[in-house]
Amino acid sequence: MLDAMLPVILLLILLYVGYTLVYKTDEPKKERKIHEDTQEVKEKHVEKPKKHVAKRKNPVETTAPKKQIQAEHPLLVHVLKGHTSAITACAFSPNGRFIATASTDRTVRLTLRESLKSKNPTFKTINLPYDYATACSFSSDGKTLGVVTADGCKVSLYSKFKTKPECITTFPVEHNVLSLLLNDIGEEWMTTLTIGKDDNTEIKCWNTSGHLLQTVNVNQIQNYHGVQSLDNRFIAVAAYTPEVKIFEIQRAKDGSFSKLNKAMGLQGHTSGVTDIAFDGSDFKPVNHIVTSSKDGSIRVWDINVRYKLQEDPKCIKQFQAPSGYYSTVDITPDGKWIAMTQGSALYFLKVATMQICCEIQNAQDDDITRIQFDATGIEIFVQGTTSRIIKVYHLPIE
Ligand SMILES: *[C@@H]1O[C@H](CO)[C@@H](O)[C@H](O)[C@H]1NC(C)=O
């Protein structure tokens, strides 16, 4: 029986082995095929983005030189680099020696302007541990730098820039400060004015010991910028409401601060005033004020009026923005040129004709928050919102 069954059993075993061999070799083949298919699909997917990247690369390559061209605008004379985070404030010293920059990197830099052409400009650093400066301003002689710190609402005055900047005094100012002004004539005395930010619309006057001399409330909902004429006579505040209030510093016989008095009002804008500037300098008398407003206009005002007899300055020239409005404005000390900005664009307006003579698109990395001509009116700095650099442009030469 077994002898008869054996070939059948062997045949069955052979059939089973054969079946399993065929089955087991077939399965991986199918799997491999599927795997190869998916790989092909994957490769195709990979290839497609590669093509996209390649396509995208070209526009990037073509925009890069454009940016370089923009950075090398013929009027760009200096780029101040070195801060490791956003610049919050900038100021030219009236004597032309320094440019001060404050940053959220907790430093203030005093850069020697004559060294700006070299690869490694000379600068002095003021460190503000645990805090940073939100506003800065020089005294008339350029020997003192005032700084306002963010957290502490404190004013600090520094001097001795030639060796190592030294803090000569620090005092609390009891409000959040938008603008800081150092008002001084000669070396005898100095008054520090702090102009409140946000819903605080006060102007506070302090002596250098931190003693509050006077508080004036501008009462214009929100202050945008507080400025001072270079002859230390007038203070003006651009604010949310259309009227501009101009204050005069009244002095005692020895020249020391006696009182801040409202002297004039500028009436005519139909919307808030974003920025304001005086012409004049230590050598040139103050004759004009320029204002930019949310009503889209840039106005030039003659302030040679008998304000003690309640006469108000008159608008003598006007320029209307083709669209929108200008957020910052400044005027050269000789009153011949106005610079203004909209977004990241800088414009130079010739006062004689009230026509834009030069336009620099992307004059900064982002929206421009402050511009200022130096005391000669030849150069202007441009500060952005979050930019770590300051760009300095030259006045367009005719
Ligand atoms: C500031 O004013 C106070 C109070 O009048 C006075 O004691 C102090 O000497 C003044 N400081 C300066 C530097 O004038």
Walk me through the structure:
The strands form 7 sheets. Strands 1-28-27-26 form a 4-stranded antiparallel beta sheet, with no helix packed on it. The chain has a 4-stranded antiparallel beta sheet with strand order 2-3-4-5, with no helix packed on it. With 398 residues, it is α+β, with helices and mostly antiparallel strands. It has one helix at 2-71, and strands at residues 76-80, 87-92, 98-103, 107-112, 123-127, 133-138, 145-149, 154-159, 166-172, 177-184, 190-196, 202-207, 212-217, 223-228, 234-239, 244-251, 257-266, 273-278, 288-293, 297-302, 314-320, 328-331, 337-342, 345-350, 355-360, 368-373, 379-384, 390-394. The model is unreliable at 20-70 (pLDDT under 50). 18% of the residues lie in helices and 43% in strands. It has one domain (76-394): Methylamine Dehydrogenase, Chain H, CATH 2.130.10. The protein is built from 1 helix and 28 strands. The protein starts with a helix and ends with a strand. Strand 7 (145-149) and strand 8 form a beta hairpin. Residues 207-209, 211 line the site of 2-acetamido-2-deoxy-beta-D-glucopyranose (NAG). Residues 47-57 have a biased composition (Basic residues). Residues 28-67 are annotated as: Disordered. One of its GO terms (cellular component) is endoplasmic reticulum.
